[in-house]
Amino acid sequence: MKDQNHKLSAATIGLHWLIAVAMIGMLTFGLILEDMPKGEAKSALIWWHKGIGVAVLAFALWRFGWRLVEGFPSALSRAPAWQERVAGATHWLLLLGTLFMPISGMMMSLGKNRPIDVLGLFTIPAIGEQPVLDQVGQVIHGLGGKLLIAAIILHVVGALKHQLVDKDGTLARMTGRLVASDTHRA
After folding, report:
1. What domain range includes position 121?
2. Whole-prediction pTM value?
């Protein structure tokens, strides 16, 4: 099924929630790792973080392709133009963030000439020391993580506004329920 204004496809809903939970989990995981002292425990957790990050990238690429084909779901209610621009920018930042976070993490490892073991399934081989790749990856991963956290918070606030103020069925639609089509849009 393709997305419709009154009902979203199972693929749209499933990919949204899978990536949402995965990205929030990985951002939380990364913040915990940031504060940990170096040692065996941290190294073991980094192994998991990298492997899960590559898996998240695979689903994020699927979701990115899906969004390019389907477009973003249309809003169920009108908002001032500035809010619609902020919502659009936030959706793009979230979508691109699901790509740039795992890719920048891979840049850091590969730039340090470290292979990436993907949960014991396969290994992305080291490519030799690439200091610029590592440094760019670190900047993107560090700053990008903070931007992504801010975008997630903004997205949640927007969803709550749709639920509590607009009462337009946006959250119901994101959980797979049928909503009245075009009841709030002029």
Report:
1. 10-174
2. 0.89
